[in-house]
């Protein structure tokens, strides 16, 4: 989070005071650093270097059009998991040939649209999905590239909700069954087998799980070669985790260097799908303290951001740093739970934090650039937050705050004549 600093008692992103951002755009408000997004993407791109492959930003982590446009202009490819994410990438100027389509539940309509625009590859997650893609491609007299996502049954040692590479997870095809599925894919009309894909989980802070998965996949690729199935690319899924609190991580350069070394003389292009490690620490959520409520058991700072704005603490019990937007408060330091207005006990952003705060103060929930706004909702009929991009000493509104009319758009009272088609 090197783009965040304290200047004149103000928490500053690049050269912009977050107090100024809050004053201009209101709270809650997401704010992102162009410099941080650029730097983090280039760490992957430069580490891959001249080796064939793609750095595919995971759109689910941050899907704002301006963020996607910035990354597309840097040369990024994109990993999508829905038709809506595909349309966002295209609207932002991303090229269809730089899109890989992941996800366990692609509909036939999404598959057709992806074929229409000419995406790079489908990451196939089940044999029934493979059959549907073949059926659609054959009917259209097309050949489409597919990669089969293999579940290597590797424990990523992460939160169970973001672990994706174990046998009990819904993702991918069982490692032992994979050769037969690849053989079936080779036989199907309209299918070009291009790659092997895996994704073992998110927020992984050490290299050993990645290397364990890679070793298993290389064995599979060698087995497929013996079956006359040539694999052109290897997709290793999500990137490294990030530092939320005190995690110590290897560098991206070290990670990709070890992967290249493990390939030996195999001529494989490399694909990576980082999201969190590009966008998380590029952003923060600014919120204002509405009330302070002191009880015999807990002190609550009730803020205007809530679980509908940032779901991670409620869903994953995630820890994110809380920082005052203006330092040097004369309020007494106490232990606080930072909670929102939503009518749920799980509506909290942080618990048991030592802070000097009072009503009217602004706070920044750090590391909020990934899985923050993208997981937000209108629960309790709350409008979603504004989003702002900082570039040096300038800042730009990249998504306006939702108002009540935005929330109810598309709804009708019973007596109103419904003229819109579903």
Question: What's the helix and strand layout?
Answer:
Elements lengths: L3 E4 L2 E4 L2 E2 H8 L3 E5 H15 L4 E6 L6 H9 L3 E4 L2 H9 L7 E3 L6 H10 L3 E4 L2 H13 L4 E8 L21 E2 L3 H10 L3 E7 L10 H19 L6 E3 L16 H12 L5 E4 L3 H4 L3 E12 L4 E5 L8 H5 L5 E3 L9 E6 L8 E8 L6 E5 L19 E6 L2 E6 L4 H5 L14
Parallel strand pairs: 4-20, 5-6, 5-13, 6-7, 7-8, 8-9, 9-10, 9-11, 11-12, 12-13, 15-17
Antiparallel strand pairs: 1-2, 2-3, 4-14, 14-15, 14-19, 16-19, 17-18, 20-21
Helix pairs in contact: 2-9, 5-6, 8-9
Describe the structure.
The chain has 422 residues and is an alpha/beta fold. It has two domains: 4-31 and 280-408, Lyase, Ornithine Decarboxylase, Chain A, domain 1 (Beta Barrel), CATH 2.40.37; 34-276, Alanine racemase (TIM Barrel, Alpha-Beta Barrel). It has twelve helices and 21 strands. It has helices at residues 18-25, 34-48, 65-73, 83-91, 108-117, 127-139, 178-187, 208-226, 252-263, 276-279, 312-316, 404-408, and strands at residues 4-7, 10-13, 16-17, 29-33, 53-58, 77-80, 99-101, 121-124, 144-151, 173-174, 191-197, 233-235, 269-272, 283-294, 299-303, 322-324, 334-339, 348-355, 362-366, 386-391, 394-399. Strands 4, 14, 15, 16, 17, 18, 19, 20 and 21 form a nine-stranded mixed sheet that branches. Strands 5-6-7-8-9-11-12-13 form an eight-stranded parallel barrel, surrounded by four helices. A hairpin with an 8-residue loop joins strand 17 (334-339) and strand 18. Helix 2 runs parallel beside helix 9 (252-263) and helix 8 runs parallel beside helix 9 (252-263). The chain starts with a strand and ends in a 14-residue tail after the last helix. The model is unreliable at 158-166 (pLDDT under 50).
């Amino acid at each position: 989070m090197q783009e965040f600093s304290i200047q004149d008692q103000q928490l500053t992103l690049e050269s912009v005071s977050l107090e100024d951002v809050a004053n201009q755009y209101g709270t809650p408000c997401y704010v992102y650093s162009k410099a941080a997004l650029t730097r983090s993407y280039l760490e992957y791109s430069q580490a891959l270097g001249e080796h064939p492959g793609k750095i595919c930003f995971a759109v689910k982590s941050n899907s704002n059009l301006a963020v996607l446009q910035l990354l597309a202009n840097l040369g990024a490819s994109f990993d999508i998991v829905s038709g809506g994410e595909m349309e966002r990438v295209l609207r932002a100027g991303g090229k269809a040939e730089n899109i890989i389509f992941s996800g366990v539940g692609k509909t036939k309509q999404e598959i057709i649209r992806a074929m229409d625009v000419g995406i790079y590859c489908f990451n196939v997650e089940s044999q029934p999905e493979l059959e549907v893609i073949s059926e659609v491609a054959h009917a259209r007299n097309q050949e489409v590239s597919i990669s089969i996502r293999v579940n290597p049954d590797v424990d990523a040692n992460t939160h169970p909700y973001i672990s994706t590479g174990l046998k009990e997870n819904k993702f991918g095809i069982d490692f032992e069954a994979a050769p037969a599925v690849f053989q079936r894919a080779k036989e199907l009309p309209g299918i070009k087998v291009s790659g092997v894909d895996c994704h073992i989980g998110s927020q992984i802070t050490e290299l050993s799980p990645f290397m364990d998965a890679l070793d298993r996949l290389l064995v599979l690729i060698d087995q497929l070669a013996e079956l006359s199935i040539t694999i052109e690319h290897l997709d290793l899924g999500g990137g490294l985790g990030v530092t939320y609190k005190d995690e110590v991580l290897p560098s991206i350069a070290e990670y990709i260097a070890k992967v290249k070394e493990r390939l030996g003389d195999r001529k494989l292009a490399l694909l990576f799908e980082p999201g969190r490690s590009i966008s998380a620490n590029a952003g923060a959520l600014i919120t204002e303290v509405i009330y302070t409520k002191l009880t015999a058991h807990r002190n609550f700072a009730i803020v205007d951001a809530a679980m509908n704005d940032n779901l991670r603490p409620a869903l994953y019990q995630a820890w994110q740093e809380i920082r005052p937007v203006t330092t040097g408060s004369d309020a007494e330091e106490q232990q606080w739970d930072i909670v929102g207005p939503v009518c749920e006990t799980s509506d909290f952003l942080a618990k048991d934090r030592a802070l000097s705060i009072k009503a009217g103060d602004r706070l920044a929930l750090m590391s909020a650039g990934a899985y923050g706004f993208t997981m937000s909702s209108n629960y309790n009929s709350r409008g979603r937050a504004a989003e702002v991009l900082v570039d040096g000493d300038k800042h730009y509104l990249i998504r306006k705050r939702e108002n009540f009319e935005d929330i109810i758009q598309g709804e009708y009272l019973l007596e109103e004549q419904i003229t819109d088609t579903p």
